Amino acid sequence: MLLSELIVKIFVYAFSGVLALYALGGFIKGGRKMGVRLFFLIISLVLSVVLSMLLTDVFKPYVERVVQTINLAELQELINASPSLIEYVYALITALIGPILFLILFLVISLLMKIPGIFVNRMVNEMVSKNGEKPKNTWLNRGVGVLIGLLCGVVATSALFTPFLGYMTLADQVYSEVTEKE
Predict the structure, then answer these.
(1) Average pLDDT in the 22-43 region?
(2) Does this model's pTM top 0.85?
(3) Of 38, 43, 140, 156, whose CA is between 20 and 30 Å from 114?
(4) Is there a contact between 86 and 96 (Cβ–Cβ < 8 Å)?
(5) What is the DSSP string of 37-93?
């Protein structure tokens, strides 16, 4: 089995597992709470994309310093044999910073967004409640919760796996370019 096939299988199993957990959470919590969760998950996704793009530009000078320090004696022979290698090292490190920043930001922001989510859930429950009674989770509400939970799972797994898949594609392109030049 090739490494790429193994990675694809891991992603499929992880995707299925995350979808199942979100669907179960939607069944337990209901449509209202999962709708609020989806709203804040999308906000987390947008904020993470914007902040990771901004912070990647901030970290670029540090990447140049790291690449310059990579010129160790042990690697000098390899760099002398293929001088263009240092450019690819710079490109790979720069490309890796974006996904790592995005993942960290997405996880932190989505956790922080649970705090306002609690207050929004309370406000929604108060608006929906009748005579101060807590709204019940009917089967319709639970079914809608499962559907919204599945949508939340798609958003979350897309946010978590897309940077990895993008990086793997970039690494494959760089590998192809390096092997063509040699």
Answers:
(1) 94
(2) no
(3) 140
(4) no
(5) HHHHHHHHHHHHHHHHHHHHHHHHHHHHHHHHHT--HHHHHHHHH-TTHHHHHHHHH
